[in-house]
Design goal:
215 residues, alpha+beta, Nuclear Transport Factor 2, Chain: A, six-stranded mixed beta sheet, 8 helices, 6 strands
Length: 215
């Protein structure tokens, strides 16, 4: 019984010493570790998949430099919103194929699947993403496609074809009166001198007819 009481007293003393060491010294603020930047990157793509635009915004600085697709680049949250909304609307699923961590920076090779890749007839595209951080927030983001990847190159060709405007249809003016009217209209545009000569001949013929009637 006595030995058990001694062990209990020792345990209480150890706990008290540990608690005392955890308390900050007077006038000294306890330092809180910043969030793991790798975790922030995972959250960035997870919130894209959840279509959580505001959640993505919460990971960005107010003056973020955002470069992806239509942003080339966009500066600030407001300017980046349209691109983020476009991206989440494609129901994206992102796989981090490779990730490299450096102080204040992360580079990631990603495989992206979504409605936009299916529309282009490819399984996925590859983007080489770069994240830069200020504290716990993303201050810069870029994700250029990798043109050396065959499927990504095919996706880019599809986008370029979609961006080409359709040819403007030719405007056909209806004839004034049948085929003759169309021919007369064509001649008047292409040969204005011939039109003038035709009018002079017509006036001359009309004058001759009037002169014969008088005689």
């Amino acid at each position: 019984m006595k030995s058990r009481a001694v062990r209990l007293i020792v345990l209480l003393l150890v706990l008290a010493a540990f608690s005392f060491n955890e308390l900050p010294s007077p006038g000294v603020k306890k330092v809180t570790a910043t969030a793991d930047p790798t975790f922030i990157v995972f959250q960035f793509y997870e919130r894209h998949s959840q279509k959580d635009v505001d959640g993505v915004f919460a990971l960005l600085t107010d003056d973020v430099v955002f470069a992806r697709a239509s942003c080339t680049p966009c500066t600030g949250k407001a300017a980046s919103r349209v691109e983020i909304e476009r991206a989440v609307a494609t129901n994206p699923r992102v796989v981090l194929a490779n990730i490299a961590v450096a102080p204040g920076k992360i580079e990631a090779r990603t495989e992206v699947r979504g409605d936009h890749t299916r529309a282009a007839g490819v399984d996925r595209i590859v983007q080489n993403a770069t994240f830069e951080f200020r504290g716990d927030l993303i201050s810069s983001f870029s994700a250029p496609p990798d043109p050396t990847d065959a499927q990504t190159a095919a996706f880019q060709r599809f986008q370029q074809q979609q961006a080409v405007p359709p040819p403007t249809p030719a405007i056909v003016r209806p004839p004034a009166t049948g085929d003759a009217g169309l021919l007369s209209d064509q001649l008047s545009r292409d040969y204005p001198v011939l039109e003038l000569v035709a009018w002079l001949l017509a006036l001359g013929a009309a004058g001759l007819l009037m002169a014969r009637k008088r005689s």
